[in-house]
Amino acid sequence: MALDGIVNVNSLFTLALFLGIVNADPSNPSYTLVSKNNASSSCLAPSFVAEDLIAYHVYSFSAFLFSSLIASALKQAIKTSGRVLGGQVTIRLTNLMVVHINGVVLRIGILACACGTVFGCVFLMLGLVNLVQIKLGVLACRDFYTLASCVPLLVLVPLALVLYICIILHASTS
């Protein structure tokens, strides 16, 4: 069930990333919501922020894809498994062939999935911060709407990731 959850969540994040990349056109001058008359030019996001936005989306997609592929492989191994004995998992590939996989390897695989998901979430969060800076102005200007968008994102996502990491570590050591 945990692997199903990882694959499902990663699929949703991957879809969101594709939609974000498709709809993002930071080179378009009308893409920003910062009023050029009311704000100084220092509040407009420089070009490297748009470059980072795309880079973080690609990094996030890579991490989610890594995590999903490992989780899918583990799911297939578990679905074909016959039984679990002692730390060994017996996998029946055919009626004649039996493969033994160490239970530690499965736990390491699940930890690798979790790491991919955590890195994907971190890069997605950084990409969203860059998107907010492009649309609403850089954080250094301390505009209300920019801070109101970024502060919850920068507080709640790391808090949820710490909780996720603690639960995954507890589950993998039990």
From TrEMBL:
Keywords: Membrane, Signal, Transmembrane, Transmembrane helix. Residues 1-24 form the signal peptide. The keyword Endoplasmic reticulum does not apply. The chain crosses the membrane at residues 54-74, 104-132, 144-169. It comes from the Eukaryota. The keyword Transmembrane helix applies. PANTHER family: MATERNAL EFFECT EMBRYO ARREST PROTEIN, OS07G0240400 PROTEIN. This is Maternal effect embryo arrest 60.
